[in-house]
Every structure is written in structure tokens, then in C-alpha cells.
Design a protein that fits this description.
Phosphorylase Kinase, domain 1, 6 helices, Serine/threonine protein kinase, 5-stranded antiparallel sheet, 224 residues, Meiotic_Drive_Suppr_Kinase, Kinase-like_dom_sf, disordered C terminus
Length: 224
């Protein structure tokens, strides 16, 4: 049955979505902009490289479309091939010309949990850790794992963006998020039921990016 739905969805994508869809990357450090999206398609999310949409008649799938000029499509296909099946990751069911059809993962991102005051159990963090270790064992390098790229569903941890897992350089985003979880979230934010507004989270995001870039430049400068 899934294969029948998948073939029908591919037809709809070719005939209805792609001729009437436009996505643009304005700034490579900010989410892409979806300029046009035909009815009844809906946006699931926007990353720095691509937009993710779904059709309400095919809720078991999402469609990820890369913005023109943005890299990463071939790498993402390779990552999914290496991952195989794992309950914390999606699966790539179709890939062609910058477009992927993925198994849909349901849940709330940890970013949104912080914003909405939804409690994040420690099991979620531990399961994401285990999933990233699994990816490492498959020859991958978990990269760019942050609050918008991991989710919680029924108390379980999920990783929703693996597009940069071929990058070999060290990425500290997940370690920093875990540190904030154990040092700040568990002892203060969670017990008080605090909600962190999007404006403040955006300031934190941009400040983190600035200092991470500054640290990288200083490291390169002082190395012989």
C-alpha cells in the first residue's frame, strides 16, 4: 500500500507541486524562503538549504526540496543510504534532482519545546545521543545537530536533519545543547515551567553563531 501511495505522490509532485513551487535561499545562514506553494500543500519546516512540505492526502510522507544553488542533495542521499533503518531517523524513499521524499517523523522540536514550555524528559536526550552514536558507527559524522533538528515524540528522541552528516570537521552544537540542558534547563527552566520567547531564542542563536565563528577564526590564526 505504501508503494502505491508513493507512486501517486510522485505523480502529484511532478504535475502539480513542482510547476507551481518556488523556493529561494536569500542568506545561506538563514532559513530558505518559500515564495510560492500550490494548494493544498503545507510547509513543515525550512532549513538553510531546503524547504520541507507535505500533501494532506499523504501524511506518511514529507517532500524536501533544495533551493537553487544550495549544495547538499547528493550528500544527503548518501547519508540515508549509510544509515539504513533506525527508529530515531527518517528514511529516504525517493530522490531525484534536488528533491527527496522522506518518511514523515511526527513530534515537536526541542526548540519549540523550550518556546512553549513543554517538558523535555532526560530519555529524549539520551536516545538522541544513542542515535548519533549509531550514525558514527555507520561511518558518518553527526553535524549541525541543534534544537531545530531534533524532536520529541511521545517521550522518545528523534533526529530530523542528517544532511550534513558527511562533514568530517568537529561540530560542538549537540554537545553545547546537552550542556545547556543539564546545567540550565533541568535545574532552572523545567522546574519553573519557563517559556523562552522566540525573540530571545533568536538572539541566543545569532550570538552563538557569532562567537562560534569568532572562535574558529582565532583558532585558525594561532595555529602554525
Amino acid at each position: 500500500m505504501q508503494q502505491i501511495h508513493l507512486h501517486k505522490l510522485i505523480e502529484i509532485i511532478d504535475q502539480e507541486l513542482l510547476p507551481n513551487f518556488q523556493v529561494e535561499s536569500v542568506n545561506p545562514h538563514d532559513p530558505v524562503e518559500v515564495r510560492t506553494l500550490p494548494h493544498p500543500w503545507e510547509i513543515v519546516g525550512r532549513g538553510n538549504y531546503a524547504a520541507v512540505v507535505y500533501h494532506p492526502d499523504y501524511l506518511e510522507f514529507v517532500v524536501k526540496i533544495y533551493a537553487p544553488g544550495r549544495p547538499g542533495f547528493e550528500d544527503e542521499v548518501e547519508v540515508y543510504n549509510r544509515l539504513g533503518y533506525h527508529p530515531a531517523f527518517s528514511e529516504c524513499l525517493y530522490a531525484k534532482d534536488g528533491l527527496l521524499i522522506l518518511k514523515r517523523l511526527h513530534g515537536v522540536t526541542l526548540y519549540d519545546c523550550i518556546q512553549r514550555g513543554i517538558k523535555i524528559p532526560k530519555q529524549v536526550i539520551e536516545e538522541i545521543d544513542q542515535a548519533l552514536e549509531y550514525a558514527s558507527q555507520r561511518g558518518l559524522h553527526p553535524h549541525d545537530v541543534h534544537g531545530r533538528n531534533v524532536m520529541m515524540y511521545e517521550g522518545r528522541g528523534l533526529v530530523v536533519d542528517i544532511s550534513d552528516f558527511l562533514f568530517e570537521e568537529k561540530c560542538a552544537k549537540w554537545d553545547n545543547l546537552k550542556r545547556a540542558y543539564y546545567w540550565l534547563y533541568l535545574p532552572i527552566i523545567s522546574p519553573l515551567g519557563l517559556r523562552i520567547p522566540p525573540s530571545l531564542l533568536n538572539v541566543v542563536r545569532k550570538t552563538y553563531r557569532f562567537f562560534s565563528g569568532l572562535k574558529e577564526r582565532i583558532t585558525k590564526f594561532i595555529q602554525p
